[in-house]
TrEMBL record:
Signal peptide: none annotated. Residues 1-22 are annotated as: Disordered. Residues 65-118 form the Methyltransferase domain. It holds the Pfam family Methyltransf_25. This is 18475_t:CDS:1. It comes from the Eukaryota. The lineage of its organism: Eukaryota, Fungi, Fungi incertae sedis, Mucoromycota, Glomeromycotina.
Length: 244
């Protein structure tokens, strides 16, 4: 769902185009696993919706949108599943891949594959950290020119409440990092953020009007700034149930 992520494989011999593609996909898979670790520790749990009892049942079906390793689909169009298939649908950190005007239709598609009385959970972050340093500010401001809407996380609750197919909407917002391993999480979060920024280098360097070397220097400074204890990307998570 979202992007197809391949499992890690071992290759021998010279690198081919397919080898390089596989390496890139493995790197993306690693980044997704890192995101999962970060979110689990930031929130101190794996999910917001009260689905613990469902996950203990063998026949429960769960859809993790954007983070699977098996099936390819496009949530912007139509997922390759029948109506009313899943007991729990979870989606996180897809603000970059979903245009702001597409969110209502994406949510409708997630609801379509959700069973009646099933749970839908969404998690997004504000990609503009609070207490940003100058390098972080320059890079994140440039990202808005790419159409990245840092405010989408603050609209999740409204999206669910305005959808007539849903009920029992809940929202939780985390504005600061107060976990016991906060220092480790800040370091990992800055690495994750920097990785994303590096993939956007050709476009962002052009927008900022800097050379590749200057951009690399900016990214390095940004990484240092993101380790500031007062710097944090606000996190928002919501869940709701599908009406019978």
């Amino acid at each position: 769902m979202g992007n197809k992520i391949s499992k890690k494989n071992q290759f021998n011999g010279e690198n081919s185009a397919s080898d390089n593609l596989s390496n890139e996909m493995n790197e993306e898979a690693d980044r997704l696993h890192l995101q999962h670790y970060l979110q689990k520790n930031i929130w101190q749990n794996n999910f917001f919706a009260p689905v613990g009892h469902l996950l203990e049942q063998e026949d429960t079906k769960v859809l993790d949108v954007g983070n699977t390793e098996i099936i390819k689909g496009n949530v912007l169009e139509r997922l390759p599943f029948d109506d009313n298939t899943f007991d729990y649908v979870f989606q996180r950190t897809l603000y970059v891949g979903i245009p702001e005007n597409k969110w209502p239709s994406v949510i409708n598609e997630l609801i379509r594959v959700l069973k009646p009385d099933g749970y839908l959970e969404l998690l997004e972050s504000d990609f503009k950290p609070n207490n940003m340093g100058p390098a972080t500010t320059k890079i994140t401001d440039a990202r808005t020119w790419l159409g990245h809407k840092y405010t989408v996380c603050y609209k999740l609750q409204d999206y669910l409440e305005e959808n007539k197919q849903l009920y029992d909407v809940h929202c939780e917002i985390k504005k600061e990092l107060n976990a016991e391993n906060a220092e480790e999480l800040r370091k990992l979060s800055s690495e994750n953020f920097t990785t994303v920024v590096k993939t956007l280098k050709p476009k962002l360097a052009s927008i900022i009007k800097v050379s590749n070397d200057e951009y690399d220097d900016l990214a390095k400074k940004m990484r240092e700034e993101l380790n500031n204890p007062k710097t944090f990307n606000t996190q928002v998570r919501v869940y709701a149930r599908k009406k019978l």
